[in-house]
């Protein structure tokens, strides 16, 4: 027996994600007959995704139905699940901001992330719309910043909310690199989104951390000398990751590898030392140019395919389920198909040492009773003091600035950057960023409480 639901995707112009979601829905019998609404402020992209989804479902003989919209409140009507994958500022906006920041002596933007205002306000706005329009729906946040966004939404609204990311799957890269079958690995990597640490790594039920140690001792140097990244985010077994393992005693997983340690990012030379060629990790001008080009090419191909009846959508996107968790979690909540997943939720005691109202990334059991986080073993004090708690504090500074509209809080964040060399430099770069075209709303929101 199937359960028909309505899923609304906000930011559906993220076409690869939307089509992966549709594929998983089509291949989940328990959700047959469901309806998907693709909402995006870009009508052309929303229509493209809807056309592709419709054709994909027809080719598979699925009973899913689809619509598209540019009206967010209308798209939320009668929704059971709302998935947000939207990013307000695109790759070209990010490039323009980095160019401004670079002119002030910061390499690749340093650690300055003043543009999170837009995505956080979007997340909060969606949740507040849901309180009015579909208060019983689940809000699944797939767009960044997941950590700050999940914390913000669960503090400020009563909507049932979780954040999802796929970075934890990089434990499979470790297994493959050291010669293990990833499907025979059991792992656990709790922490914060983009800041998770592998506390357990079992192969066929036995501790496999010694196998990582053996690989580091006998094969790592050869790997680093010969490995060429297969993608911009291919950093899981980089020198940086192993260095963090040696420093903190646990292996960093996923984006943790690139978000821990300012010393890995001081300049291009440092990045090429710690991350594999040809880009030196995803956070370089060259890598981001590849990301932009790949996305643009993908969108163009999908746009052409959407309006070409001779193109087989199934042939392009395949007919195998993805590893994304969104649809299995929906299926678990709706049809009581229980499973364990990696989720971002209010802590409430799941991870020791972190406040109850801060979002943590931990394993959880999902079934008809809801999302039930598992209490995990405490992270080592060295990881907590040097990595987890500083990230919590950074997130709290972001949310404090958002709530108060205090521009001084933004300035203090810039001053915290290890790329900042003087107070005047920090003031100048912040003012130039806020003066950029398209950032007027943000500049208006943040004001100094007193003249500085």
**Shape by Cα distribution:** globular
Q: Which structural class is indicated by helix and strand composition? A: alpha/beta
Strand order of the largest sheet: 3-2-1-4-5-6
What oligomeric state best describes the polypeptide chains here? single chain
Computed Rg:
22 Å
| Uncertain regions spanning at least 5 consecutive residues | none
Q: For the residues shown, what is the average pLDDT?
A: 94
Question: What would you note in describing this structure?
Answer:
The chain is an alpha/beta fold and 452 residues long. Helices cover 46% and strands 15% of the residues. Among the domains are: 6-166 and 298-332, AglA-like glucosidase (LDH C-terminal domain-like, Alpha-Beta Complex); 168-283, no CATH class. The protein contains 19 helices and 15 strands. It has a six-stranded parallel beta sheet, with helices on both faces. α6 (146-156) links the parallel β5 (138-141) and β6. α5 runs parallel beside α6 (146-156). The longest helix has 24 residues, at 381-404. It is globular and about 60 Å long.
